[in-house]
Amino acid sequence: TQFKVDDVRWAALGGAASIDRQYMKPGVSWWPQEYITDEDVEFACSGDKVEVMITHDTPQLPGPIILQDRSTARYWPEEDRELSYHNSKRILKVMEKIQPSKICHGHWHMRYTEDVELSYGTVEFTGLDCDTGSLYDNLVLVDGYGNRDRLL
Question: pLDDT (tens digit, 9 = 90+) per residue, 79-93?
Fold first, then answer.
């Protein structure tokens, strides 16, 4: 979905693969519909370029970002890692089409900000923590122009 606030174009693309679905209950804490579909990608790619993108998951990146050393991926089942990989590849496909300069996601449950070079330029990534963190770690204030200010 795309929308405009003042003169800034935004995009939102939900969905993620629950890497821990082995511990979840279908229809209660995990749903097969949580993945981004090809139809979701097609719809998202049909929009214009945007300044800011909001997602739950993060895209599959060509290089490591700050969290790679903290990765727990090796502990999760191969099938779930594959589902997660394909979901994040879909997000990257959308990003390369609509070319946001900022992206905010929460799937990793860890607060960080890092600039990442993609094929179309530098993108500022912001990850948000989970509910157990501080308000600062769970919230980013963004004005209508896409400028991020930290909540102190």
Answer: 887 888 888 899 999
